[in-house]
Amino acid sequence: MGCYLQMNGFDTEIFGMHSLPGGLCTAWKRQGYTFDGCIHWLMGSGPATNLHRMWRELHAVQGRRFVEWDEYLRARTSGGQTLTIYTDPDRLEQEMLRLAPEDGKLIRRFCQAIRSLSAADLPVATEKMGLFERLGYILPWIRLAPLLKTWSCMNVQTFCSRLKSRALAEALGALYGGEGSMPDFPVSGLIMMLGFMHKSCCGYPIGGSLEFARAIERRYRELGGRLRYNARVERILVEEDQAVGLVCAGQEHRAEEVISCADGHATLFDMLGGRYLSPAQRTAYEAGTCMISRWARCSRWKNRSCWRTGRSRSGAWACACSASTRPWRRKARPRRS
Ligand SMILES: Cc1cc2nc3c(=O)[nH]c(=O)nc-3n(C[C@H](O)[C@H](O)[C@H](O)COP(=O)(O)OP(=O)(O)OC[C@H]3O[C@@H](n4cnc5c(N)ncnc54)[C@H](O)[C@@H]3O)c2cc1C
Asked: Model pTM?
C-alpha cells in the first residue's frame, strides 16, 4: 500500500507496532533455528499471472528464486494410506481415484475445476485498464461464475463429508478443513491455490517470509516513504466522521488521508472505538468467525440456500467484508506541492 501511494505521488509515513516489517509475513530465530510460519505459497510467484507484475513493481521477486511445487503435500491417514497432493490436476485425479474410486464423480468435478480455474487469471488494477483489456479479464470469469458459485458455497469440511471414502476425507481434511486448522476454508480457495500451483505461480520464496517483507520495505524507502517502528497507533483521529490523523505515544499526527492496514479488529474496535461498525461486522467479530472469504461468506448472501453449506461452527452468518465503515476512505487526492 505504502509503495503504491508513493508511486502515485503521495507523501506517506507508516506507523508500525512491531520492530520489523511484514506483520504476519515474518520469521524469527531461536537457538539456531529459523521459524517461518508464513509464506509457503505466494500467488504470483511465477510470470504466468498478472499478480507477478505487482510483485515486480514492489521489487519483491527480482533476484529471488521460488520453489514451485510438483507435489504440494503428502498426507498419511490413520489407516496407513497415503494421499499425495500433486499440483498437476491429471496426476491429482489419478491419485484421488486410487484412494477413493467410489468418489469418482466428485473427484473428477473437483479436478476439472482446478483445470478451468488455472486457465483464468486474476486482474490487477482494473481501473487502469482500457475497456477491451478489462473485458479480456472479466469475460472468462463470467464463464466461470457457475463453477465458482458451486465451489465457493462449500467449505472443505463439507466437501470431505460428502466423500464416501473416509480415507480420502481424512487425508484432505489434513490439508485444509480439519477441526484444528481452517474448517471454514472454501473449496474454491483450495481449487484456486492448486490452479495457480499448476501453472507454477504459487511457490515458496527462497529466503523466506521476513526476507520477502524486507524487500518490500527497501522498495518503500527507496520511493521516499518514511517508516516508524515500535509505533503503536492508539487511535484514529476523527472529525465530522472523517479521519484526519492518528494518535501515537500520546502525540497527534495529522494527515490528509489515513489508511489502516492493521487487522480489522484493532482498527474497528481499538482505533475507532467501535463507532463505525456495521451490525454484520459486529456479529462476525462477536461470534468469532475469523476465516472469512469475500466470495463465500458474505452476509449479502445470507438468505441464499447455498449458505447452509458454508455455515460456521459458531453459527454466525455475518462477515466483515460487507463493510460500510469508511471514515478513512476519502477520495484520494494527489500530493500538494
Ligand atoms: C501461519 C500463516 C501462514 C500463512 N501463509 C501464507 C501463504 O503461504 N501465502 C500467503 O499469501 N499468505 C499467507 N498467510 C497470510 C499472510 O501472512 C497475510 O495475508 C498477510 O500477512 C496480511 O498482511 P496485512 O499487511 O494485511 O496484515 P498483517 O500481516 O496482519 O499486518 C498488520 C500490521 O499492522 C500492525 N498493527 C496492528 N495494530 C497496530 C497498531 N495499533 N498500530 C500500529 N501498527 C499496528 C501489525 O504490527 C502488523 O505489522 C499466512 C498467514 C499465517 C498466519
From this structure: 0.81
